[in-house]
Amino acid sequence: MDRAAPDANGIGMTFGDTLNLWTRAASARAYVRIIGANRELSWLASEVFLPILSVTAYIFLYRSLGQPPIYEGMVVLGGAMIPFWIVVLWSMAMQLYWEKEMGNLDIYLSSPADPIALLIGMAVGGMFMGGLRTAGILVLGVLFFRVPLTVSSWPLLVAVFSLTLTALFAMGMAASSVYFVTGRKGIKINIALMEPVYMLTGMFYPVRNMGLIVSMIASIIPITLGLDGIRQLTLPGAEALKFLSVPVEIALLAGVTVVFGVLALWLMRRMAEKGRRDGTLTEKWL
Predict the structure, then answer these.
(1) What percent of the chain has pLDDT over 90?
(2) Model pTM?
(3) Over the stretch 196-247, which tens digit does the pLDDT of each residue have?
(4) How many CB atoms lie within 10 A of CB 159?
(5) How far is CA 190 from the centre of its chain?
(6) Whose CA, among 20, 156, 162, 251, lies 20 to 30 Å from 276?
(7) What is the pLDDT of residues 128-157, one digit of tens each?
């Protein structure tokens, strides 16, 4: 007896069908960012060149004050994290709103594909996008300013960097559902969050200089802990300027990843269920 074909809601699909559809949906959404977003080379160049200007300004400032070269290394590493923050704000948190404006959200919600797969695909593609720009900033910073980077432990560095990205993009996934409700106000929120986050996360100086309470509050943003750990593992002498030890930061980043990840799944499920039940998510007033 032939198996009944699955309907548009996915009813009648086997586990293999579901897994295959989930993988294809995530891969298709990631493809747009891995291949499509990098076809416009002028965007790539500007997104590398503009953060380099900030990095250059801070490095000249430290040199004029006679500070040791370790501060220049901190600035380069901080500047290298800027693309990831930009991707999370503009290509993760705002993405569902962009999809609604382009008319894609209706297709997503009416298809049997799991919306979570689309979020995962967006995150994976976003990591690749941010990674390319980060690599460009890092290479230019090291070549132009002769910043000495010495990795003291590759396993710990990989762990800190990986958990920083997973926590950061999980935060972006959770924010995407919240931003969707805010609509165009999300653009103003993003603009307001750019510079203050550069300051709070210590992108251009040791975050512990902000004081214990402010540093702990800033640790909600994963870049704070991740950047502090990466500096300790790549810049000789940076441990003396640390906020927390690397093992503690790894544990906290893992916890933040789980919290934001669960929150993102819950919010996306709620939004998708409401969209399919009420059919109101794509109305203009939302």
Answers:
(1) 30
(2) 0.85
(3) 888 899 899 999 888 889 999 999 999 999 999 999 999 988 888 889 999 9
(4) 19
(5) 13
(6) 20
(7) 888 888 888 898 888 888 888 889 999 999
CB contact at 8 A, 182 and 189: yes
Whether 51 contacts 79, CB under 8 Å: yes
CB-CB contact of 268 with 276 (8 Å)? no
- Pick from 189, 172, 176: which is nearest to 124 by CA? 172
d(CA 198, CA 281): 33
Q: Judge whether 134 and 223 are in contact, CB under 8 Å.
A: no
Residue written as tokens 């790549």? 234
